[in-house]
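[Q] Does anyone have a clean structure-token version of this?
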Amino acid sequence: MNLIYISGYQHQIESNRLTFTKMMSFSYQLEQFAKDNDLHLKIFKPNYKDLNELKSSIEEMKQYIEENDEIVLIGNSMGGSVSLNLALHFNIKLILINPQLNPTISTSLLNQEDKDVLPFLNSLVEESKPILDNLSSPIISLCLLGLLDEVVNPNHYIQNYSQYTKTTILDCQNAHRFFDFYFYNKAFLKAITYNKIFRKTK
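[A] Here you go.
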């Protein structure tokens, strides 16, 4: 099984030092999860500060997906916009963590020179919406939402995307900068092995 993790904006201000904060970050905990369960993990950390670099990263992701089998995408925060679009394009399973699927409201996170990225991310989401309505089964096998999220409004996901999701977990104690991942190990394993045909057949 090949897991592809697409990080959000926050990774760009993380330190490389192994601090407690870094150990509690989702990417670090996901690496441990993959090792413990003998899963191959590929991490992509797109540059959301540069539109050309972001597009280049997405092309890299597409190539990796085309060259590998048994892919499960995992999108975190802004990575949710990219991963949703890729999952629908390639018809593969998707796990989301506090996904930002309304990128135009994220201006407070970005510098002025970064803001040309937002319309592009929003176009990925808009492009995905008509495809979602043609699914025969939920392509999003799991979504984790922190109800105390100070960056992404969890209600936006619940109102607009819960019908495309097999399992939604609402965590009432955690905010955007995720969480104790080990509590969700079983839910993740179940989501990874979830097997359905997502597209309707004619």
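[Q] Thanks! Anything notable?
[A] The chain has a mean pLDDT of 81.
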